[in-house]
Amino acid sequence: MTTKFDLSKFTTPAKKVLERAQSLASTLRHDNVDAEHTLTAILEREGDDNLALQALQELDVDTKRLGRKLIDELELMPKGYQRRSQVLVGRALLDTLEDAGKESKDFGDDYVTLGHVLIAMSTARKGYAGKLLRESGATAEKLREALKTMRKGKKVTTSGGAGSDLSLIHI
To answer: I want to staple 87 with a disulfide (CB 3.0 to 4.6 A). Which of 25, 48, 59, 150 is the partner?
Structure first.
């Protein structure tokens, strides 16, 4: 079963990654966007505004190797007969996004960031992305600790315009 998801409580960088994941799924002619598409989009988004990627690097995860494994997995996923303009969120990713919302609340944040999504993804027992994160040493506990250290106790209180997840963090 697939469904749409309300992104109003997600930061702009998180929304952009989810849009890129959906675009990737469409390009690959996949019927649903899943965690593997989303993790690939997180890895693609380089720069100072991607705390999730920085947390992986802080944990010495080989993000290039991780990305190659994800691409290999995406290529093996069943393809539809034609490229779809509207790709829906798969059940496993929906569950991950709901868990990311819970992570956001646990952090005391008003909005869901890429870091929250990454933590939730690492706890998912279904799917390749969570397994790959854990095998790479990016467990939920380690990611939480890395993100808390990077954020220095600050909270995400706005969704932000073109800003980064880091710029959305306020005391």
So the answer is: 25
